[in-house]
Amino acid sequence: MTRRAGSALLALTLTAMGSLLAAPPALAHQGGDLPTNTRAAEVATEGAGEAMKHVANVQYDDTGEAQNGTDIEFMRLGKREYALAGTLGGGLQVIDITRPRRPKPVSVYDCKISQGDIQVWKRRGRVLASYTADGTVGAAGAASRCGTELGLEAGDAGTVIVDLTDPRRPGTVSWLPVGAGSHNMTIHPSGKWLYNSNSDLLTAGSEPHITIYDIRRPTRPVKVQDFVIPFVPTSLGSESHDITFSADGTRAYSAALSQTLVLDTTDPAAPEILGQIVDPAVNVSHQADPVTLKDSDGTERTILVVTDERAGAAASVECPGGGLHLYDVTGDLETAPVKIGAWFAPAYSVQDGATCTSHVLRIYPRQQLLTIAWYAKGVRVLDISGLADAATDPLAGPATIAFGDGVGMKEVGHFTMPDSDAWSFKTNKIRRNGSFFGYANDLVRGFDVFRYDGSTIGDVKPLKPRDLRPRRKGSVTAERVDASTAAGLALVVPATLGALLLHRRAARRRRD
């Protein structure tokens, strides 16, 4: 779509947004986004899309009502692969996806708290996951397994650390209290630090902050500080909504509702603010993920992709809602990011109240792909191979708008069900031909498996999941024994052989 046509459509979109944005701020972030779409007695089995098809669905309960799915993460243990699906009050769902077409629930960690944001990491031979309570745990959370084992009360809020070393028997490890709650939390790549985002509104307090925990001893987490961030009196608030670390852990990017921050996290216990983005075109800065790619001249550029969860996931009047806003943060630009444009899903319709806006994404740098959930407009796959070139385009700038194709990104696959309310959409494995099974956690539908056939992109570098399986103590001990006895065996074996030779000579003499 041309920029001129896109601008005209944007004008119509902004007009439709007017009454919505004038309404009081949505309260979705006080306890997790709520379902807005509707479903029949059974979830829909047929939908529409491009280069994608629906493969399987798993229900978390048999109520026939909204399943309240939220975040999703993955872990590989040996030959088995698992999806970890969060819920609003239904506990952490552990699903075996070794055979993607036949996903099998294997356990539920009984923790009836709301939001259920998930991170997974490995620490000292244990596979751990964090699981969030936005707002307070409530009576149901306090009465569930995590509440009773941790001694929680209904008014408590924060994050639970869970042991998933044996996925069939999840265990409770510890509790990180955060007064304003844990809407999202992020584990530093080292696995030693946790940054908490409460995402509360302006009424939460006069001094927005990111709570930092030292989790080097997961059973005894230690609060390090409440790192203060700027107050910006626009949008839904100034608190951090979500944080993403760079792969080396020296940078963090905080999507903080009315602003987006670039942090120096070389010392994770004492971050520093390097840059700030206050963009009036972004209603709610929801997620901020960096990606470093090479342009046509071979020069690396780092682009920050910021999602706009317009109106905080409140009911929509039209699609496509909030889009993806793109900023060049290469080198010194991280102190003053430069906007190169915005991208919107090519989904134009008047909504009947079901949410339609960008939400949880994941970037796959080596494959130059991006997956994202778009609530009522289902799940989408983007080719982002042109982002670096877009940053150097002399026509790029804040007014550059793309619908489906442009600003260095192109939608190459999508799928929508009539009852879609997709909260997150990610994958753990991508084949060389670009195809993959993608997993959506849906507020209405529960756990969905889709297959993108790769026909619209061609070959890519394969993505393989990291094996988190702990080494067996027995095998470690055996290795130590082998190493420690090697010298001894070098002495014992010759002596034994010598004795055996003497024994044989004596026997021969007796026979003679």
TrEMBL record:
Residues of the signal peptide: 1-22
InterPro entries recorded: N2O_reductase_N, WD40/YVTN_repeat-like_dom_sf
Record field: transmembrane: 483-502
Keywords: Membrane, Signal, Transmembrane, Transmembrane helix
Domain of life: Bacteria
Protein name in UniProt: WD40 repeat domain-containing protein
Organism whose genome encodes this protein: Nocardioides salarius
